[in-house]
Structures are given as C-alpha cells and as structure tokens.
Amino acid sequence: MSPWKAAQPGDPLHKVDTPALLLDLDAFERNLQRMADALRGRDIRLRAHAKSHKCPEIALRQVALGAVGICCQKAGEAAVFVEAGIKDVLVTNQVMGDAKLRRLAPLARKARIGVLVDDALQVKGLAAAAEAHGVTLDVYVEVNVGANRCGVAPGDEAVRLARQIVAGAGLRFAGLQCYHGPAQHLRSPQARMAAIAAAAEAAGMTRRAIEAAGIAVERVTGAGTGTFVHERDSGVFNEIQAGSYVFMDRDYGDNLRGEGDVAFEHALFVRTAVMSRATVERAIVDAGLKASSVDSGMPAVWQRPDLSYVKAADEHGVIATPASAALSLGDTLMLVPGHCDPTVNLYDELVCYRGDKVEALWPIAARGALL
Amino acid sequence: MSPWKAAQPGDPLHKVDTPALLLDLDAFERNLQRMADALRGRDIRLRAHAKSHKCPEIALRQVALGAVGICCQKAGEAAVFVEAGIKDVLVTNQVMGDAKLRRLAPLARKARIGVLVDDALQVKGLAAAAEAHGVTLDVYVEVNVGANRCGVAPGDEAVRLARQIVAGAGLRFAGLQCYHGPAQHLRSPQARMAAIAAAAEAAGMTRRAIEAAGIAVERVTGAGTGTFVHERDSGVFNEIQAGSYVFMDRDYGDNLRGEGDVAFEHALFVRTAVMSRATVERAIVDAGLKASSVDSGMPAVWQRPDLSYVKAADEHGVIATPASAALSLGDTLMLVPGHCDPTVNLYDELVCYRGDKVEALWPIAARGALL
To answer: What is the ipTM of this complex?
Structure first.
C-alpha cells in the first residue's frame, strides 16, 4: 500500500501528486443522473455493477438514485459492500468450494445475496451452504447468450437447473443471468443492436421454456454500459447491470454512438506528470501500466489531441510529442484509462474533485478482493 | 483490500483458496542462489530490483545473499524498503516535484538514497531538497543506451549533467544508469547479446568522456534478468539491477536460452480453480486479468501442456480444453503469469509454500506505492 496520500480534501487540483486516480464529481453525478433518466418510468431496474468501482461511496449513491442494489464478481467484494450497508448484492459469477461458500452464505443474514449457477454441482454446494448457515440464497441460472464464457446453452439445460434450484432447501430460483459482454465493445451500433437482439431472443426462449415447466421467472438480468439501451428495450430483460457508465473509459468512448444511446462522459482520470523530456519527439510520464491498465489499449490524453500515449512500461508512459507540442518537464496531463475496471483496481483511493478543488478521498474498499 | 486471506501458514497446499499468488520457496531459493553464483568472484555487484516483488521479506533475503541493496521505481516504494531496514536504495527513475522530494530526501537519514537525472532541472530540485533536509543524495545520470525512454544521449550531455551534480551541494555524483529494458525481451540470444554490446559501448564511451573531464565514475549500473550475463561480462558495468530472476515469468521463459545464460526457474504462480465447465471445449477459471496481468500476454498453464489459457476477462480466464483433457469443475491449476511485476502488484500477499504445505504469508508491502 502506498505509504503516502496523493492529496487531502481541500487541496487545489494542481497540488495533487502523481500518478493518482481522479474522479470528476460533476461529471460522475451527471452520469448517475443520465442512467436514472434512461430507466425512469420503465419496468426495468438498475443493479449497478460494482466490479467497476469497488467503492462503497459510489454504490451508496447509486442506490440513493434508485438502484436496487449492486452486483459484483467475487464473494469477497460482496462482503465489502454488505459491510458498507448495501442490502441487495448479486455475485454475477459461479461460487464454488467450501472456503468461499462458508464466507458467502453468512452474508445472507445481513442482505439479500444472489449467485449464479451453470452446473448441478454448484446448486448442490449452494444448497448445502444455505442449510448449514440457516439462510436463503437467490440463485440465477446463467445462460450463454453469445459471450461464450460461462452459462448453459439456452433452453432445456436451463430448465433442468431451474427445477433443481426450486427443489433445493434454502435456495430461491430468482431468474436468469443473460450477460453478453463482448457485444458491448462492438464498435458499430448496428452490430451491438444485432448481438443483443440475438441475446434477448435466446433469453426469452429460455424464460418461456422454464415458465412452461411451471416455474416463475422473476428476473432476467444482464447488460452493461455499451448495450443496456437494447436490453432495456428488448421486452425480455427487466434488470440492467451496467457499471462503467459512472466513469466511462477510452474503450467505451471509442464505440460509435447509435440513435438512442446515452452519452455518458469521462469522469475518471489518471493524473500524471512529465518526468523526462530528454528528446523533442517524446515525453515520459510517471503513469505506466501499474497506473493505467492497458488490456484494452493505451489511455487517451484528455483534451490534448496533439499528444498520444503510445507505449506503457511498468512505471513509465511514453507520450509521442510533435515538435510543436507545448509540454515541459513537470507538466501534468489527465489520462482517460483504456479500461476503467482494472485501472481502479490498482489504487487504494479515488481523489474526488469538483472544479479545481479536491473534495474527498473515497476508499476503493474492495480493491484486490479476489477471493 | 481482500476481507479474507487465501491461506494460513500450516495449511496444506490443496486448501489454498483461489485465486491466490503463490511462491514456491524451494524454487525461489534456488533462483537466489543461482544469481549469487553467477556474480561470485567478479568485480560486479547485485542491486536487486524490488519493483518486481515489492516485498521486504524478499529484499532482506537478497541482501543476506550479497546484494548491496535494492533499486525501485518510486519514492513511495523506497520509503517502504527503508522502513523495512534496507540500507541502500536507488530509485531508478527521475523524481520531480516538491511533494515527492519532500518525502524522498528525509529517507537519506536512514539509508543511502540514490536517484536518476536526465535534465538540469531535476539536479536543481534534488540539490534544493538535499539542502533543505540536510542530507546527501547519490545522483546518477541516466543515459539512453537503446531503450529510447528516459536518459540523455551518450557523451557530452551526460558530461554536462555530471559537472552540475558535482557542483551541487548535498549531491554526490554516483555514476551512470544504463538500462536497456527492451533488449531483455528479444527472443534470440544473439539479438540480446548484440543489443547489450551496443549499450555497453555507449556506456563506456560516456564513462570515458566524464572521466576525461576529471570526474570519477564510481558506478555503471543497469541490466535485468534477460540480459545481465552480457552486462556482467562487458567490462563496463559494475552493478546489476535484475529483479524478475527471483520469480521468472512466462515472458522471460519464452526467451531462447543462449550459451552462458542462467536457467532460472518459475517460482511464482497464480493458483486458480475451474468454476464453469459448461461446454467440453472450454473451462472457465476464476483468475482473469485482475489476477494475472496480461500486458505481456496470457499466462501459461503449469505442467499441463494439453491446456491453453486463451483469453482473460476481468475476473474470468478461458482455458481451451481438448476433448481428451481431464479437467472438472473445482479442479485447480497453477498459472505462470505472463509478466511477474504487474501481477504481483495485484495482490496484498504472497502465499509461500514448500512442497505441499503453506509456510508463510509475506506482505507485498509496496503494492500500489505509485507516488
């Protein structure tokens, strides 16, 4: 853990040490409002994905603006958010093994806890844990609607699992998880719409098959920032799991916007400083790949179209600088991370600012919660 | 921070929760010994790079086996290692700005502290900080010997900076930093040897130019795990900054080994479990890119040549599995990270094991020390 803090509340923005993870509170609050507006008056609710921010301060604001609760990917993340007072948490993942189940199940005494399955063995493990701890767990069948990751094939397999859940003491069949991650990063709006149309078709067919077996399907949940308007309008989904919308990142920003897509704005930045300017054609900044994740490509340089962040080493970033670029040793830049989720996971806190002043430091309390 | 620990000392290996970062102590100790052997009886010393491990327990063992101290990339990392009792720390980076200098300089009361420069402005800042805090700082001129990152061009520019350092109160000109990172990842041994021959030529020329100006050059330092035998044998370098050798990673393992190269072995693993096996052609494991950095490619699957880790999402890894693969839900695998440094930076502790038993948990105390 860093022995020092990058800033204190009340500091002027220009004094924030580098590299640091900054949240523009005005932009962030506008993003929260845009999502609330996009879902208002429709029969669809938001379960905000907290894997993106890992930050209880943000989760509490999402719930205050209407989110039913959060989802996250790890039992350890769930524990952090339950501890922070979130009352409805879905682990959008398979949770297996005694160590994890022994920790997950007791959380259901303090909050509604949901989890996914795509195999009978997982249902068995959850039922045993629920019984051992005297709790009820919400269980969703994950259906592969195009992501080709976890999830059973649409149709019969899902029906079999739903029956098994219904029969399990301590388990409540809560519905279907139908998440299509890759669709969100298709650049063309037509391609995204087509992918989600196919996903909704598979989800709807599976829901009807389970209902035909006499089992109610309360919830069809999924979607993320890049496609949620299509799931929202599908007539099949009734819950949205968007997370990145609070921050936006360079990768989502690269999507071409279609009619009806919501224009979220960049609110998350890595503040960095030029530490070497030994040649005219490049500047070296102090934010490398331990400061801004590069799995979805390099960060963008905010409001400096003349500059490109072209290469990341562990602790160095290389900025290509045309001869005309005004950029001196010690100058600071704001980077828009390529991918917000793993970037946030590199920091212990968010430096939250409004205008030119630091307003708060929010702990990224679930950072590193891998178990 | 994870609310839970993956293991406790004394646990059998098979009970370690997943994903977790594991250190095979036997392999690690053999790697330490191999490096000590490779430098023994030569006029060259090891300054182990702690950016790779960020772990005082490892640094103390490196010093016990003969390392003069450590190097690291951030002032915040230096603070962690000085606090842990390391007496000689070189920040192999430019350190700029009041906030950083105000924190770095006082460390020189407890340890020898070195830092790099490639601009007169940095020398000025260091001199002011040294004077303000009543300390002496070692200053190295960074020379660009082929990495094209930081560093002045070989020759005259370095002489000018050396003169300025010598004239600076509170500063001690300690030598030249001549690090060629990219050379270490050239796959062919001939290419690595040629790159370091050119680097050593540039370093030697610069050293002679400074000596011709009447300034002694005590130290020429640089090198890393992929090339250190060439710097060692160059007749120019007298200090080696290798770091990854303690762990090895998939990327270094992919280098073709040349005559004289030292065969370090993989000692660092991400333990992961299969959490979904919904189709025969893939298994989904619980270690994604928040558990094993993918900037240098996907992790390898240890001792399972039939399996390939083909895709990483944030919290999911996709393992391609031939129909013949014996791999069931709940099975565990050991991954060899693509790149050890940023992988270590994702965890709060190393689960150290010997044989089939967990022996210790070592805090990764400088994880996230970005400032």
So the answer is: 0.97
